[in-house]
């Protein structure tokens, strides 16, 4: 039996990473494509021979990837180049607009074609003839063969076309691949490996921009899309001036703005951006064709610093990263996801290669060398600077990325105009966005009489639905008329107790009919109620009562702790002992209400210090309630369950929304919100139609 030996070489760390990513994406987006302008009279057959010669000279371009039995990763196997052909398209009779349209369409069409990693040729080539002296060559391949380095490609293509013999054998990619692999275990590279092991990769999302997924696992597919923007002349001059003045690179400027924007949107200090490094900066590797460039984690914790201080820091960090990037390995990082959420790269596309007859220059380029949700590419070309926002359409739609790009351009303009500003003070909203935020998105006005208080809107509803059930608690209920009458009686009693406009009245009651009656009564008497949860710690209750300078507290002996330390001037009104209330007049109190008159007071949690009281006027309360009714309307057939502590702001809607709409307010028993079975039973038995919950419920 004849044995066939296969000579193979290990994948480089970058190829290994790409192979891992490709296995996790059903349609691999990891491709490289160049659109090259050729000026001069091009001979088609000579161009084909030049391309074949370049492939013959660079072993990586005639390498297949063979999966051996028992191995997790394939090996690189160098093959014969095979036949090389260039498809021709003659566009000389088409208009310039049609030529541009056709070129763009063909570029996109080629990007959608799959590449075989097991068969030759490794490169697809298309030639578009625009005129006798102007042609476009589109070259495409897998990212396992090429990266974003177009300069080496142009130079070698020129030399091959001119049949220029090199003085030395080209350095082959497999040799560099072996060196990269050895470096990851070389004791002399310990310092470089330690540099990366100290880096923490943040897992951040742009939740307000990202899509809600329809697919079960968005990581299984990837759909790259992009948009681009150009800097104007004014921005270009400012950028060049700051780079020259601060002695930083243009790359650092774009990266600092990207960092700042991600920090502002995610509201996180530590931000990680996968940033492209190219080892061709080493003179020994200059001109080598193959996937040398790769993205490494660029991490920094933003503090309260000015933009220019951050710029100088990140410029230094870029230099550090460049020194150690060859020692980076995902195997050394404590993370399950071997990819970045955010990416950044910068490229100078102004280089060209001029031969004896043909000048080669780059028109357009696509490179997807790693996975990102979204990546910013800064590009210097012959027209200035272009910003390309590349994104996975599985995560973002175009409108969201366009908005993000607008934020970036606004921040860039502000940073270039005033680099001494702290990063947290740089605007990201342009004037149009500010106007939209203030005038369009803030359309919360509702039509109501300025002189009307919340209780007066309730009284108008009573006239419309006097016999409808207004409130239910356990086996008890009150109609709208009955609720209004009892609240009127109680309000008149409170008036004699000294309650009037701007009087703050504490209410410490459990959920019940009496709680709702008391809240309405305080409003009708002209006062503002302060809800006090009986389950508050005694220290919090005592603090709030003292801080609010209460002179009247309505409660029951069961609700109020006996040993609560209260000031002598606080008058306690025990509800169960006030029988004379039933003798009061039931008619509405004709008292005018100022739009700025206080309706209720609510206290913060005090998680960042002492609890603070916030006064809510009738105008704000009425505006909110009527806006809610307009956007989320309730009808007379609705039943709303009230289960939130009335000391929480969220309870306001639960209690008053149904009472302003003719609906029924159904009150859950005290602590009932903690019993899921009770809530389910109540919802079913009481036929609840509207329930307010938080996502965790």
Automatic annotation (TrEMBL):
Residues 10-436 form the Condensation domain. GO terms for molecular function: catalytic activity; phosphopantetheine binding. It comes from the Bacteria. Residues 458-696 form the AMP-dependent synthetase/ligase domain. InterPro entries: AMP-binding_CS, AMP-dep_synth/lig_dom, ANL_N_sf, CAT-like_dom_sf, Condensation_dom. Pfam families: AMP-binding (PF00501), Condensation (PF00668). GO terms for cellular component: cytoplasm. One of its GO terms (biological process) is secondary metabolite biosynthetic process. PROSITE patterns: AMP_BINDING. This is AMP-binding protein. It comes from Paenactinomyces guangxiensis. The lineage of its organism: Bacteria, Bacillati, Bacillota, Bacilli, Bacillales.
